[in-house]
């Protein structure tokens, strides 16, 4: 499926990295496990499964050497375990796991098991994995726990294997994004990157599940108002968006919190108004500022103050592109009870943008 730049959609002035994804940040991995089943509804079967798990590994030794981190909340009708600890200590010490709302507990359990397997020291000091969720119940039957520990392990293994690859990661209706909808179309997993003039790489990963079709805006063009109305059917939930920024810039925890907050500006450009019932929860981390487990950090230069401005721009632009990437990569998906989330047709987007430019 095409990405925004394949359609001539250029967001901002900063260049992307080679894969235009979080994988452009050295050492970062991204993996998915997609759960897709068609069975009778409970009690005879498990129902229609359109869900999964996505794992972002920012560093494979994060428990021993945590990453500087910070977070921000635009609207708090959602859940992200480990978020309070990351904000309190200013560190990230586990991968970031993304899934659907009703699967959060299972993913958390598996994340704890993975942490123990990778470092026996976790048993002496415990760990609180970061697990974020969005509601995919429009397409996914959530009356049964659809995700297993094996799914979480598969996504984690895929994330470790993806580090250093030159290939762009799968996006759209994969992993945690399988059952998500965005701005009246199919959404899901989206990612993009930017490189600042100073040579720092900023990657953004989103789980998009928010918004209304009439508000969809692509590179400033009101595409949602120009396409046909949504098919009639049951209404979608207000939705949410979990966003993660990862950068190789040496940014401390306070700076990371400021980077995380800029995800909201990128979402607004695409049409988000952060509904009453949505959870926009954002986290950012630096792969080059590595406090020890007592919070002490090695000496070295930090990017702060006005020097953060290029990183702010990178986050906003990469976020806007990641939203579009999550939609353009996703086909139409039919889920439980025949509910349908329509894929955003790249040809339609291209035509509307060209008409806007000519006009």
UniProtKB/TrEMBL annotation:
A Pfam family the protein falls into: Peptidase_S58
InterPro entries assigned: ArgJ-like_dom_sf, Peptidase_S58_DmpA
Species per Swiss-Prot/TrEMBL record: Nocardioides taihuensis
Annotated family: Belongs to the peptidase S58 family.
Entry-linked PANTHER family: BLR5678 PROTEIN, D-AMINOPEPTIDASE
Protein's name according to its UniProt entry: P1 family peptidase
